[in-house]
Amino acid sequence: MSSDEIILYDLPSKQGFSWSLNPWKTRLALNIKGLPYRTEWVEYPDLKPTFQKLGIPPNDSGPFEYTSPTVRLPNGEYVMESRKIIDRLEALYPDPSLHLDSPYQARTEQFLPKLVGTVRPIFMPLVPVTFLNPPSKQYFEQDREKTLGMPLQEYHAKNAEQAFRDVEPLWKELAGWYAENEGGVWLEGKEIVYADVMVLALMRMLDRLGVAERLWALEGGDVLKKVYDAAAKWFERDTY
């Protein structure tokens, strides 16, 4: 490994590409900044033992002790959790900046959990059958079904169609943000910011799951599809 190379610990798919919302935040940031990195794939049940062996302390918040994305920086430092990672990347590699000081950053951090929560009945049941290898599939299904108190497919059957209806005003609201600035496709206009990255990561997962077309058809979807398409070059590197 070259001394200036970053390691990205990502969740594998049976297709061989990156799929998950949170790792995509970091992967996009690395791709936009043009930083040298390589991917190490870690299945869900292997996250804890792998990271414990590396001496990484557990998360200090959230429901899971050990999560992806995690990165190893060239100085040997390990950083876990997408927001902490972008803070370090911006400090160490400030050019090009992803502008964590953008006024859209706080808005997006407050808004996206609501959006993700609304579409969860659509995407969560599809993740294990679409993407996951057997060890992760079993882990994911057991964990999520315990939390939900029902099988994932039952959760999907009961809630997915309502979720498509419930997400429409949120989708429209998000599209409206992109209409606030003229002269470019991004939230701040011509320059992409990390708030855009957070939105793009969700879009990528939904697209790979095959549900994006229904979302593009909703009011505001045409605007958001243009945003997604504008990031195509940064989505190309998704397998290594």
Automatic annotation (TrEMBL):
The record, for Pfam families, names: GST_C_7, GST_N_2
InterPro entries according to UniProt: Glutathione_S-Trfase_N, GST_UstS-like_C, Thioredoxin-like_sf
The residues covered by the GST N-terminal domain are 19-91
Q: Which domain of life is it from?
A: Eukaryota
- What are the coiled-coil residue ranges? none
- Which stretch is the leader sequence? none
- Residues forming the Glutathione S-transferase UstS-like C-terminal domain are 109-209
Provide the protein name: Uncharacterized protein
Tell me the organism. Answer: Cladophialophora yegresii CBS 114405
